[in-house]
Amino acid sequence: MSKITTEDFISKYLGRKIYLNKDKHLEIKIGQLELELKLSDDDSELLMRSRYVGVSKLLKEKFETEWHKAAWKPEHSYITFSLGLPDHPVVLKPDVCQHILPGQDTLAYCSIPLSIGLAINEVNVAEYLLTVLSKTWFGEPHEGILGYSLKSQVLSSKAKVKIPPTHAICTIEIENRSTEVLRFDRLCLRTEYMGLFNSSEEKILHTSVCKMRYIDKDKMSKINYVPPALNGSAQITPPRMKSNQGLIFKSFKTI
Known about the structure:
Blueprint: H1 6-12, E1 26-30, E2 33-39, E3 45-52, H2 57-63, E4 68-71, E5 79-84, E6 90-94, E7 98-100, E8 105-113, E9 115-120, E10 123-129, E11 134-140, E12 143-154, E13 167-176, E14 182-189, E15 196-198, E16 205-207, E17 209-214, E18 221-226, E19 234-237, E20 247-249, E21 252-254
Parallel strand pairs: 6-12, 13-16, 13-17
Antiparallel strand pairs: 1-2, 2-3, 3-4, 5-9, 6-14, 7-14, 8-13, 9-10, 11-12, 14-21, 15-16, 15-19, 17-18, 18-20
């Protein structure tokens, strides 16, 4: 199984119709993910198996799957892949505790891991993270959301952000429109409202820009998602969910 890069995946697989036969066994290794696809002996089923490398034995047993099956008609069926962001919100912490004064605006940056979606005849059947992530709870025990805890941090400089080939960079604009200092040690980003973009001038992928306006009403934020300002920018993946302007969410764990 040969390893491919995210760039190779975009150029060779993304959005293309892929037809399989008994002699074509598709193997993809990208990031920590190893994905195998092949047809059954009678061509009536697509067999799928995934595993992750570079993880502990416990996690390997947890994430490694047996062969899964899906109905297949050789003369009519085809596979398409999509590239996206995690299927749950992501939770990060700043490199140091963030203090944003009333009326102050600030820029921050982070990297978010990608996922691969698999569809048969345009119907989504599976999704695979390219990096093994731990789940976490953001918010109060009785009121919150399930998300992924990221090891990457929220940083004040884009140059400081490490962007592995399996990640995209996210720009965050924070406005403190409250009358108090905003102090936070956790930040939650709703990836379901964010698209993916590439640029003719950069090899890295970008997410939608996340504009957060902290309004201090029950510690809530008003959030808008907009395309990044890139030369030759093109959206390669739309958001999972369409967002109206001015979504209201709790985004900061204040201290």
